[in-house]
């Protein structure tokens, strides 16, 4: 977007298409009035006129600049307002904001992405970026888990993902008919290649991020090689409201939402 534009004023974005992921999760393709450049891991503030705005990760490829995709879970008044809008509806978008993945540091590395629930949306842009430049990376594994099959999102992409990388989709409460992996995501960390060059990207509930981080640390992974996304903490997007301040004094929207564990270890794992 135009760097000289007023950062407080959202730009109109037309809902171009809607993909129904689960009962309460949808992916929206938004056509922008101005091209946008972003890094995987960054987010935008999405405005529903008359209701307010909410921070949401950009879930699309950074190569596409005229439109973005956002994956929305219905949780409150604003997200319900988004759900009430159909194709052709107009939302306000400002951003992108925050610090995303340091792309220059991850090339020629082994990559492991671990996520649960809608947390995979924070890393979908990174997954697409890697797939589009697959030869620039070594071993790549995505470990994604939910409780039930109906909670899985992006199911229509799994075949393509698995053709380019190692994909482990696991259920912690699978039905008898489930033929895939079973158990929590931490169960499958042993199945990935871990060396001094392996980088981990983690997103999920606070409990999940803490348990995954502890598991990785217990396997000798250094905190600086574990990246976490803390989108859930954000509010204004520009470090003005101070609602997203975390220990030891970071603003998630300005200094993150992507951090290494050595930056936010106390926030993730407690004192």
Description:
With 271 residues, the chain is α/β, with parallel strands linked by helices. The chain has two domains: 11-97, Translation factors (Elongation Factor Tu (Ef-tu), domain 3, Beta Barrel), CATH 2.40.30.10; 103-269, Rossmann fold (3-Layer(aba) Sandwich). Helices cover 21% and strands 31% of the residues. The protein contains seven helices and 15 strands. The strands form three sheets. Strands 10-9-8-7-11-12-15 form a seven-stranded mixed sheet, with helices on both faces.
Quick recap:
With 271 residues, the protein is an alpha/beta fold. 21% of the residues lie in helices and 31% in strands.
Task: Write the CATH architecture name of the largest domain.
Answer: 3-Layer(aba) Sandwich
Radius of gyration, taken over Cα atoms and rounded to an integer in Å = 18 Å
Number of contiguous helices: 7
Q: Using the coordinates shown, work out and report the CATH topology of the largest domain.
A: Rossmann fold
Main sheet overview? 7 strands, mixed
Strand order of the largest sheet: 10-9-8-7-11-12-15
> Regarding CATH, which class of the largest domain?
Alpha Beta
Q: What is the total domain count?
A: 2
CATH superfamily of the largest domain: Nucleotide-binding domain of ferredoxin-NADP reductase (FNR) module
